[in-house]
Amino acid sequence: MKDVIIIGGGLAGLSAAWRLKNHDILLLESENRVGGRVMSERRGNYWMNWGGHVYAGKGSATDELLKSVGVKALPVPGKLSAMHLNGKLLLNGRVELYPFRVPMSWKSRLSLLKAGAKVRAAVIKYGKVAKQLEHEDYSVRQQRILDFMNNKTFTDFTGALPVDADAIFRPTVSRSTGEPEQISAGAGIGYFHMIWNKEGGLSQNIMGGPSTLTNTIACRLKEQIKLNAQVSEVIKNNDFVTVRYKIGDTEYTETAKYVILATPAPITQKITKNLSPKLEHALKQVKYGPHVSASFLTNETSEQVWDDVYAFATPKKSFDILIHNSNVVHAMHNKREQGSSFMTFSPANRGKALIDKSEAEILEIYLTDLEEMFPGFRNLVVEAKVNKFPYGSAYVYPGRGQIQATLTEPDGRLFLAGDYLGTFYTETAIQTGFTAAQNINSLLGFNKMEEMQNIL
Ligand SMILES: Cc1cc2nc3c(=O)[nH]c(=O)nc-3n(C[C@H](O)[C@H](O)[C@H](O)COP(=O)(O)OP(=O)(O)OC[C@H]3O[C@@H](n4cnc5c(N)ncnc54)[C@H](O)[C@@H]3O)c2cc1C
Question: 427 CA distance to ligand 1 centroid (A)?
Answer without folding.
Answer: 11
